Amino acid sequence: MTPRVSRRGLFGLAGAGAALAGAGVAAGYGLDAATSPGPSATVEFRGPHQAGIVTPAQDRLHFVALDLTSTDRGAVRDLLQRWTIAAERMTSGRETAEGGAIPANANAAPADTGEALGLPAASLSLTFGVGPSLFTRLGLDDRRPAPLADLPRFQGDRLDPARSGGDLCLQACADDPQVAVHAVRNLVRDGFGVTEVRWSQLGFGRTSSTSTGQATPRNLFGFKDGTNNLKAEEPELLDEHVWVGDEGPDWLRGGSYLVARRIRMHIETWDRSSLDEQQLIVGRDKGEGAPLTGTAEFDPADLAAIGPGGPVIPADAHIRLASAEANGGVRMLRRGYNFVDGSDGRGHLDAGLFFVAFVRDPQRQFVPMQRALARHDAMSEYLEHTGSALFAVPPGLTGPDEFWGAGLLGR
Amino acid sequence: MTPRVSRRGLFGLAGAGAALAGAGVAAGYGLDAATSPGPSATVEFRGPHQAGIVTPAQDRLHFVALDLTSTDRGAVRDLLQRWTIAAERMTSGRETAEGGAIPANANAAPADTGEALGLPAASLSLTFGVGPSLFTRLGLDDRRPAPLADLPRFQGDRLDPARSGGDLCLQACADDPQVAVHAVRNLVRDGFGVTEVRWSQLGFGRTSSTSTGQATPRNLFGFKDGTNNLKAEEPELLDEHVWVGDEGPDWLRGGSYLVARRIRMHIETWDRSSLDEQQLIVGRDKGEGAPLTGTAEFDPADLAAIGPGGPVIPADAHIRLASAEANGGVRMLRRGYNFVDGSDGRGHLDAGLFFVAFVRDPQRQFVPMQRALARHDAMSEYLEHTGSALFAVPPGLTGPDEFWGAGLLGR
Considering A190, A220, A273, B32, which has the largest number of Cβ atoms within 10 A of its Cβ? Predict the structure, then answer.
């Protein structure tokens, strides 16, 4: 009685269109938008770098941090091998045919939980990382790279330990949240007895572009966010700022570091400030997203420009303090998401930005920039950092037998 | 530098295609899927019934319950009038042009918070309701209809007061979560001084079809959900089961009641049960969603069929206990959503179903059915009701000067 079309119809095209080294994107849209069963866009799982970093940012996120409940390295390695196989299958969109939601033996528990049956891959990417605490837990402290150290406390931090840290992380991005949630859930399930969920975060809208083919999205302050983000089409800048080079251990070369910060935004207070005030705090205009010294979004910000009352872009403006110029040339690849986690019990929505950035060295890039922002950024008044975590993200898998963490834990 | 295409590209077509009395849907897709700026599908705001009830269920939800912080009826009425104007503007997709995100006077706080600037309407619907406590708060107890009484406690309920009740509710549904969140946020903002957020819930995937044009989605148990739901194309059944008739007060005739239940699903336990066990608990097969007495999803369930071991559809199967036959002919229009709210602090995801149903009389329809389910449903073992609320949903607005709640509070 019901036509057998995808229940979601067509997804955003944001993830399609660019074929990138290490993050190739294949699109499979029907010819006619109105009758297509929906896009079956897939993100290539294997490549020199993990997917989900320079992959054109998908629209939805489910991020989970896990703790080990076992200190048995062999058990952890076996899990990572199983995770790799499952992740590759899920990102390929072969879920329906091979996922095991309907086992041949009905006396067995289904291998897959089933809620993604019939859904396309929706550009799913899965990205894996290891936290500093994993090394201690597994007796591998001598293998922990120096930059993978707990982040310092920043001025104004109100971190909730239950939303911070983690031995492992999985970042699932997709254009359909059900696909992202399904992937995390099934990996979490497979980890039973070896890992447990420490915290998890859903993000409903991306706040950065990671490809020149994407329009710049808006954060919950209503401003375009990530205009000056590093882009997939700038491989030399990625080598300089994102990918770990010869300075890193073998198992991390070609990988990156993932900094996650859960930033509560006090949107009610923000909303009471005037347009002028908001624009001076950000350093850009709200409509176009142009720097206050320009007229178009991608006009370079002239930080030296002086107006009648002082610098046109104020000394405490967000884009000045976060600029490469103010930070010794340092840049980051941001890949954050807006969130709303219900209400705060005091009459307000619990909303904000789940900040995710990929950097070559968090101690040299994220830490000094965040220190400056926490102290001087006019926007800080409206922000509260409530969660924090750091993970090392190994390089991508190239050979068919490689699996997540093999370089660290052995085969 | 960046093409000015919608950052979301194409949305699901689920909401388009059917033009329904009181919930007409207009689609405006580009001819070429790959270059379209994205669908500008809009849901008609005015009509005999409020939108968001029989409107083909959109993919995403943001639901908020609010409490009055003022007992001044005039102030509440003024707010409802402002809300109506804002809701009509936002659902029409006129946000960019007329929303006030960029005020002419930059010394003023923007009238709109801006994060939906440039986004299409994405089939946004906004539905408004009033809870039993509103009547007490405003000294209107004599106007409260008898069915609008607090729901009784059901066996196994573990209700969190911070996720239950509310003087008012707003249900925002859209195919883009940023559009739904933006709408709720701006209405909440406009209510400052009169209302405050009591609780709010995001839903990422619909769990019911409300139109024969929609495929049946899956819940987090991996089963198709809502196969036998009431559909927009059955106006006589809607009159019988959903719309308040002559039995109700003037201000509610043509309206409905909204029952909301936050149902945590213990997915880890469920996932350990065998396919057979799961199918016997539900009463349907997992792949097709056919009743155990049939082979296709929409085959009618034969509750009388007896197999070698007893009834083919067990006595404690969910679809038997929830059937019209087992409930004196009672039916409901369900419109629920899957949710994941992070983790539970004990190593598991906090995931489940945010159940929303529209009924003509909650005391005669929802209460007896839920009582039976709570006592006998084999599925109950895997469920925990953690939130509960009931609202009366006034009829739709037809005249140009009508506003939400005018029938109850006067003009």
Answer: A220
CA–CA separation, A290 and A292 (whole Å):
6
End-to-end CA distance of chain B: 51
- Looking at CA atoms only, how far is residue B245 from chain A in angstroms? 30
pLDDT bracket for residue B2 (50, 70, 90): very low
What tens digit of pLDDT does each residue of B313-345 get?
Answer: 999 999 999 999 999 999 999 999 999 999 998
**Residue B97: closest C-alpha in chain A:** A287
Class of domain B44-96+110-142+162-203: alpha beta
Indicate the pTM of the whole model.
0.90
pLDDT digits (tens, 9 = 90+) for A189-242: 999 999 999 999 999 999 999 998 899 999 999 999 999 999 999 999 999 999
CB atoms A286 and B114 under 8 Å: yes
Asked if A340's CB is within 8 angstroms of B181's CB, the reply is yes
Whether residues A62 and B340 touch (CB distance < 8 A) is answered with yes
Distance CA A54, CA A69 (A): 32
Residue A243 C-alpha, separation from nearest chain B C-alpha, in angstroms: 25
Higher pLDDT, A68 or B101: A68
In this complex, do A107 and B199 lie within 8 Å of one another by their Cβ atoms?
A: no
CA atoms of B248 and B408, how far apart (whole Å): 12
Between A38, A114, A286, which is nearest B218 by CB?
A114
Check: CB of residue B360 under 8 Å from CB of residue B240.
yes
Q: Which two tokens stand for residue B123?
A: 């089939």
**Which among A261, A378, A372 is positioned nearest to A323, based on CA atoms?**
A372
